[in-house]
Amino acid sequence: MRARSGRHRQGPGARRESAKSDHGQVGAGGRSETRVATRRHDVGGSRVSRRPPARTWPVAALVLLLVTATDSAARRHEPKPRAGDLPAGWETRIRVSPESGPTRSLDGETYVGVNDLARLLDATKYWRSDVRKLVLRARAHRIQLTVDNPFALIDDRTVRLPAPVRSRGGELQVPVALVDSLPHDSTLARLRYDPGRKVVLQVPASGVVGAPQIVAQPSGTTLWFPIDRPEDFVVAGRARAHFRLRFSGFFIGVLPDTLAPPSLVRSIRSIRSAVGSGFELEVVPLAAGYRLVRDQGGGRMGVVIASRPAPDLEEFAPEGPPGPRRLRVVVLDPGHGGSDAGVAVPGVVEKDLTLRLARLLKVELERRLSARVVLTREDDRKLSVDQRAEKANRARADLVLSLHFDGFSSPAARGATVYCPPATFGLQSESERTASAAELQVLQWRDVGTRHAVLSRELAEAVLSSLELHGQGPTRLREVLPSSLLGVNAPGLMMECATLTSAADRQRLAEPNGLGDLAASIAEGVQSYQRNE
Amino acid sequence: MKRLLRRLMVGTVLMAMLAWLAWRWSGPHAAPPSGEGAGADSADAGLKTVRVYFASPGGDSLVSEAREMVEVQSLHERVAALVSELDRGPTGRGVAALPAGTSVLHVYLDDRGLMTLDLSRSFQQGFRGGSSAEYLAVASLIRTLGTNMPEVKRVLLICGGSPIPTLGGHLPLDRPIEISDWP
Question: Which of B132, B153, B180 sits opposite A413 (nearest CB)?
């Protein structure tokens, strides 16, 4: 993983250096057919499997043992590969960009240098100076380019390019349209042109997502995202002002600066996301709801922002008044404790993990907010629901987070779940409302949290969005007043921060800073709620 | 003597006929054809298709399965049969959400759609997991009852004749649950 990150971190300078050396050899080619450069990964290619002499084999065995022990010790300290299909970079929370090559404009056409093209395709170049042809060979594939000729021979196909291949500064330049004509199979790296960054890039395993096509109609506005993997798409934030989408694929394209009416989306911008790419939409206040349309066959995913209510629409998150919120006291409630262990799996007990997380989160929140952070329990003791509520209310909490970890019988269940008081909670059933419409409705004290339902929901959206963006999902929101918030007179959430019965979640938490990363993500969500962004 | 024997035989035959008539009268009857019920060509008379809900493998929703059940009349038998199907577990891709061994002790339904459902101790004692397991156990039960018994609007769960404040400590169960409020 480190090696891979290092490779992705190599800067443009490193790429230029590589390209330069290749280019120099292309220009120097004078033979009828010269192998100019080879860029192969010689993994295991040069190993000698000869048996060592009889006298030295004990020494060799000892060396091998030491090397193995050192290697395994080093591996223990490295971030471990994760099960599932999460892309690289999730573990280290470093946004990894795919390999890319710069493009340039020549006579109004966009070109990519052939050395960059060969590097991205992992191809070998053969230059025939007598006929001014260059052949790129990548495994079973062959691409033949001719100087000042718009025709390229790709395997057995002849492809007409929008402009001829040019020679500039001793290096051939190929129109970027070539990358769309390259064969799609597992033996050849998949390339795409990113007009936003003006580069040709190697498509990562997680695929790419393109700039949306926006269709504005009186009934609503639809954003069609070209996407390789429609199943890897989530709505990370549902507030109108910050409607957030997250894709596992790498974003290529250019987003419009502003969107004029009748579009129900005022603006769309790319936002930071540890996993894949994220977008934030600003939706007009009169939008009634949204709906997702998955067009897997067509390779695109649609988000419909509707202007009129409909039964199949998802609701936007409720929004409070604008401006930063005052958070003077934050109460953290580590779940379970004492004889109540909570979810227990081999090596992990929920009551201990919630306390550790609460301590880390306290540090994070105190660092980020000028707020006093109070824990309902500082040690391993059991508290009743009333005791927890009393501590929060006595501290005059502005916000309460009840911290838990989930468990479920199916190992497929993973991610985080948040429970918040429903805005409709406390209202009677329809039949009772009809029967006693004239009667005064009294809210019981235990349901006092429902007074803060809107703020709680906004807090939930902010925290879940942060968890999603940091790859700690999938996330779920359930509008049910949980036991831990009974009688709590403040906006609050009960958070199942991860699923302990999931091997992937356990592995993530067991990493050296796994719990710290989780605390940082939650704190970032709280900070976002406080800023009321 | 002969007359006595004849009287005994007649008496025996009469007694046998009376016993046969009494047996026919008190024994199970075949369902009479009804113009309002199942049609004469229905092969499913006496069986009813119900829909029971289990948790999805990902623990984020419910999945349903159709089951054929013998139609019963009493409220207790209907609810007990549904809970029994839930306890039997899924045959498809779902995951059993109800704690193993849960059965119905008593059921009451008032005229405003409030069902008080008294479940066996296994409901509480057999529970394992976190809030998702708790949420889905209740949701599976509530949704199954609500779908197959539209007259039920709210359900109050009790266990072994006593109120239960919560199943696993995360969600309060001390008040009736609105069926429409759950997934």
Answer: B132
